[in-house]
Amino acid sequence: MENTREKNKRADGRKKTYFDRENKKKAVRTEKTKSVAPEKGKQKKSSSSSKCPYQKKCGGCTYLNLSYEEQLAKKEQFLKKTLKGIVPVKGIVGMENPYHYRNKVNSAFARKKDGTIISGIYEKGTHKVVPVDECLLEDQRADAIIRDIRSLLKSFKIMIYNEDSGYGLLRHVMVRTGFASGEIMVVLVCVSPVFPSKNNFVKALRKLHPEITTIVLNVNDRTDSMVLGKRDIVLFGRGYIEDELCGCTFRISPQSFYQVNPVQTKKLYEKAISLAGLTGNERVLDAYCGIGTIGLIASRDAREVISVELNPDAVRDAVTNAKRNQIKNVSFYQNDAGAFMVSMAEKGEKADIVFMDPPRAGSDEAFLSSVVTLSPKKVVYVSCNPETLARDLRYLTKHGYKAEEAWGYDMFAWSEHVESIVLLSKLKSNKLKHINVELEMDELDLMAAESKAIYAEVKDYVSEAKRIES
Fold first, then answer.
1. Of 90, 94, 97, 126, which residue is most buried, by most CB within 10 angstroms?
2. CA-to-CA distance for 130 and 318, rounded, in angstroms?
3. Does residue 384 carry a catalytic annotation?
4. DSSP H helical segments within 166-216, as ranges?
């Protein structure tokens, strides 16, 4: 995502932000349900483009040179073009204030040749760290915490991990914030569980930021590009935070998948449940359920919800979330969603609604085939990649479903990414019931005076056959 670095300081010694208060007040404040494409040659550059010297190196905010209205129009046009001939796109829903919306911040650390410790993001296509103090998209509390962690490292003699040599301790810092709860989790990603003076480090950090509710040491000794390892050691607090979304409280641990834009997520999930048209009598299947967000929210309007997730850590969080919200009509299964649906169909079980929210790669044919086999009345498909969405919709529409409508949601303002949601409905079978009717030639007088009399006799005969069969 887009990042900024400060060059000057205020009179009070605090650093200036690239997105100052005056520009913040001038930010576009519009929630659009349908955007209008700008005329060619008349695109105005956003004043924000001059506020970020790392735009090109970061590569995240590809639309920073456009006004917010213009980028919404561009995203809607892309969505319409990609889904053309498959499903009508009704519009795109934008943000009221498209800044500092990210509730999860990952910061990489490195040491320069002169010994200076820097933190920020990797330069596009490399593992070279671009030093960033504040980003236009990230939660400002998270950015402040990362800056202060960086300042503490030298006094505590914490070595920065070097990918080339394999020496050092600290690799990344991840900060997750609760939008509604205000809770904050700090995750120190290290190659070893041994963190020198960890108790004093925690005290020093909490003295600077008493708003931090939990601190976790994550051990990642892998050599790949994964940010987090599998082992978490709680240094302070509960080891997780909670946040509220659509009236439900969710537990978020370091490994949990949770949408990074809570404001837009609320709108997206409310639309998904609205499209499902739940009446309280439906059996709902939540595939790719993660920590249970969509399924738990939908459970209030459904008879039963079955949630399936392959990640065991996510399933544990989902079960905890159900208990936390006192929801009893949801069952969780740690399994491959496609295989689970096939098993349901083989047992003669049904689902009225299927919610699916796959990763950027979309669903594979095996999963989509299992959806067709289970044959739900409606499928609500949430996608973060229009291109794989189009591919998957083509499969479903060739196998008995109609794509009714699509909506775009701007979850990643200033980037080229767009989230979307599509409603699919099961087509009714065109097969007509066949009735065998045997007529003896002597039962009808072919020499009757009028054909109307013959038609009437045949009609009565067929009606009698139907009555007997029923």
1. 94
2. 36
3. yes
4. 198-208
